[in-house]
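Task: fold both queries, return tokens.
Query 1:
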Amino acid sequence: MKILIRSAALAALVCSLFAAANAQATAGSADQAEAVLQKAIQNVGGERYLKVSSQVGRGRFSMFKDGALVSFQSFLDVIVFPDRERTEFKGGAKSKFVQTNVGETGWVYDGDTEVLRVQNEEQVANFKRGVRVSLDNLLRGSWRGQGELTYVGKRQSTLGKRNDVLKLVFKDGLAVEFEFAADDGIPMKASYKSKNADGEEVTEEDRYAQWIDVGGIRSPYIVDRFTNGKPSSRINYESIEFNVQVPDSIFDKPATAKELKKDLKL
């Protein structure tokens, strides 16, 4: 009986020690993650970056399939943080597509068919997921209270370079990994799982390049998207403006498609 009691006591002690060690490791991982995150925030502009309320970007958007360019469009992207966005794509004189989202709602306009309609649940869900896995969402801290950020470790990057890896897991299971250059803290990439049009799970990865300083705020002017390791799209900014006065009305769904034939002016 004494041996059993002692064995039970020993088992309880071992469990207690393991629990304490795991708690300490988790706390250490969270502290390391926060340190990497704060370093990255300072790299992109610190308080100036965090105080940005709106962003207007202009540039070119390219799509690839099997390594070949399949479409090339200009775009105007207007964001009012945290969850309002209107993007206009133009592929020619008459080819125009507009996608607008405000939180739980959205609408789209297809200039080829001149159809204006409300977004369906899947389209809204895709937008919301895009916001959650974005670099801005991580750096601005909108995920706090909705997920847990941990430090994964270092990962090989280019020759002689390593990245610090952070993993953000939301309460519903959505997980995204972010990589930052270990030497200067610059954001390098983000990756997560999603499903394609056929319902198959794929790995989406955004790689950030050509960082440019605009008024003390640094932004990647090139964002390359890879799907299962193959290039699928490229965002190439020509200009980015911050804290632009954006009328609320541009996010409202127009009464008719005719109102969208004119270019958006800001």
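Query 1 returned. Query 2:
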Amino acid sequence: MASAVSTFSIVACDLDRGQWGVAVASKFLAVGSVVPWAEPQAGAVATQSYANPRYGPDGLALLRQGLSAAEVVRRLTEADEGRDQRQLGVVDAVGGAATFTGAACHDWAGGRTGHGYAAQGNLLVSGDTVEALAGGFETAPGPLVARLLEALAAGQAAGGDRRGQQSAALVVVQRDGGYAGLSDVLVDLRVDDHEAPIGELRRLFELHDRLFGETPRDRWLTVDEELRTEISERLAKLGHERLGDWAAAANLEERVDGDEEIDPVVLAELRRR
């Protein structure tokens, strides 16, 4: 029999931003390779417990057809003879959510839904983890990524997986919202084996945001003569003539647009180096 992906997760969406995502944590190696699935304008799926990995692509295919989260859960589980050991969370294109916990999932196991999210977990210390997941998501400010991270941290603080911690993952999608506007993957981060995976996942996201995030244009700095001289001198010390060339080498090319203005994140990194 396959190993149980005993874990806690939350699938959710931000319809105003056109984002769907999944956050998950577990005492299981590389939980991000099994549980989270998401597609922009379709929805998101988390498959866990004695996970059926086909719930991911098959669930997204059903969501793509415009089926509701509840109908997707019904179709997937009714067609699966192993349904009693499965756990599943789904959010659809319009924010509908559904969760399923099979009768044979290990205690504590269960889930709850709210507007735009489904939270679930199995082999947990208690149901407090799922309640904390939901509460953390409902009350956290900011974009979907931030709310999912807060939910995950709240779930762990409330007990989490009763076996301990090992891995965590975060996936958020948005049409053309990823790298260079040519990818639908806004964030796809995994911590496969770590003693504090949720904290490490947050650190990775902070690094991701520094490299690939976006500073509102009205917060960019005008490059006057004094600042232009400083930039040129710093670039020369680093062996570069053009800001764009250095930024590409520093993986900051997404934050450079011409030389009349500069993203303060880029300037801070240039000064740090």
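Both queries returned. Flag for query 2: The chain has two domains: 7-194, 217-272.
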